[in-house]
Amino acid sequence: MARHEITVEDVIGASPAGVFKVIADPTKIDKWLPNVASAKHLNDKKHVGAERQITMRIHNIPISSHQVVTEYEPGKRFAWVHTKDVVEGEPFDMLQDIGTIFELTAKGKKTHVKATAHFSPNGFKARVAVPLISGDIKKQMQSALENIRRLCES
């Protein structure tokens, strides 16, 4: 099972601390991550180990995702993995090892943001669908960076 990575990058007119504050705040995820209908914080942890339940609709399909924060370095890195995804009420195992990593680097008074999503296809259908899945994820990530820019620069 080969791991696939999709990376998008941008420079945002805010400090790394300012960008981190937006992406790491569970109450703001629905304002920058496309298709998110709601986000619920599930435990008392605020950093690594924090759990959240994200509900979204992609192509009018309901998706529920249980996620855990795996990296939390203020102003530098923020990452999470999916521990369980449910699509239309059924467990989703077509993709495994799903996660996202944000890397932030100061660039003068701005921040270079590198966002990488990763997944491993599970089974023949998933391997065949990789180009479609990857294209969709890339569009969502580009939209996410545009939304983060709007929130940070306004």
In short:
By secondary structure, the protein is an alpha+beta fold. 27% of the residues lie in helices and 48% in strands.
Core attributes:
eight-stranded antiparallel beta sheet, alpha+beta, 3 helices, 154 residues, 8 strands, Alpha-D-Glucose-1,6-Bisphosphate, Chain A, domain 4
Topology readout:
Blueprint: E1 4-12, H1 16-23, H2 29-32, E2 36-41, E3 51-58, E4 61-73, E5 77-87, E6 90-91, E7 95-107, E8 110-121, H3 124-153
Protein described:
The chain is α+β, with helices and mostly antiparallel strands. The chain has one domain (4-153): Alpha-D-Glucose-1,6-Bisphosphate, Chain A, domain 4 (2-Layer Sandwich). The chain has helices at residues 16-23, 29-32, 124-153; strands spanning 4-12, 36-41, 51-58, 61-73, 77-87, 90-91, 95-107, 110-121. Strands 1, 2, 3, 4, 5, 6, 7 and 8 form an 8-stranded antiparallel sheet that branches. A hairpin with a 2-residue loop joins strand 5 (77-87) and strand 6. The longest helix has 30 residues, at 124-153. The mean pLDDT is 93.
